[in-house]
Specification:
mainly alpha, 235 residues, Growth Hormone, Chain: A
């Protein structure tokens, strides 16, 4: 296979630059990416600490395997029911309830009881319910030429923040303990989510669909959503 021509490489980087510029100058896209990033941080933290959670609660190794399987299954269920949840709640509620629920769920580790493990793994459901609607929202509000790149920018932001936050949280667990660290992280995420959600809600009304302006008969953020793009479980 021949390597890309020089002009093709330049076009590739130019598309990426345009995607970043569009994200920065479009508040509705930027703040929604922050919401998705916070949800990704919650699911990444849950994925790292679900085994310490169960061990701390006195669950044997075979029980941890069942817990991990349940978490993976919950993610698959979230993908399966994403369209139905979006149709029932509308986008604005999905973009609020899934992130904030995922953040608060981390506090389930504080009492140290295995009975709260189903709540602790809620981020697996929340992320997989939200992500198809998130990608569809970005797709509806970005030009076709940079659509995939804008989604890639979001994934890059989420991934980088998770890479930074997860080791910091692990260090906090080593220094001050499991429960105080997750409590502090959950509170921080809820604060970020509240700010980002209010900013997104305000900016959304001023952001037109790529093929039409708000009020042209297209569904708004509180209307039943269009069929969503299925996603794979994140963890």
């Amino acid at each position: 296979t021949e390597p890309p021509r020089t002009e093709e490489r330049h076009a590739y980087f130019e598309t990426g630059r345009r995607a970043v510029a569009l994200t920065v100058r479009t508040p509705a896209l930027f703040w929604l990416m922050i919401l998705m990033t916070a949800t990704t941080t919650a699911i990444a933290t849950m994925g790292v600490f679900q085994q310490p959670f169960l061990r701390d609660a006195g669950i044997p190794l075979w029980g941890i395997g069942i817990g991990v399987a349940a978490q993976t299954g919950l993610g698959a269920i979230g993908s399966w029911m994403s369209e139905r949840v979006g149709a029932r709640l509308g986008l604005s509620r999905v973009f609020w309830l899934m992130p904030v629920g995922s953040a608060i769920a981390l506090v389930a580790a504080v009492p140290g009881t295995a009975w709260l493990f189903p709540l602790f793994i809620f981020p697996s459901l929340g992320w997989n319910v939200m992500y198809p609607h998130f990608t569809e929202y970005l797709a509806r509000r970005t030009p076709e030429a940079v659509r995939a790149s804008v989604i890639s920018v979001s994934n890059l932001i989420s991934g980088l923040l998770s890479v930074i936050v997860t080791p910091v949280v692990a260090l906090g667990v080593d220094r001050i303990g499991f429960r105080p660290t997750l409590t502090a992280l959950a509170a921080s995420l809820v604060a970020v989510i509240a700010i980002a959600y209010l900013a997104w809600l305000r900016a959304d009304r001023a952001t037109p669909f790529e093929d039409g302006a708000p009020g042209d008969g297209r569904p708004d953020i509180d209307a039943p959503d269009a069929p969503a793009i299925p996603s794979m479980p994140a963890v």
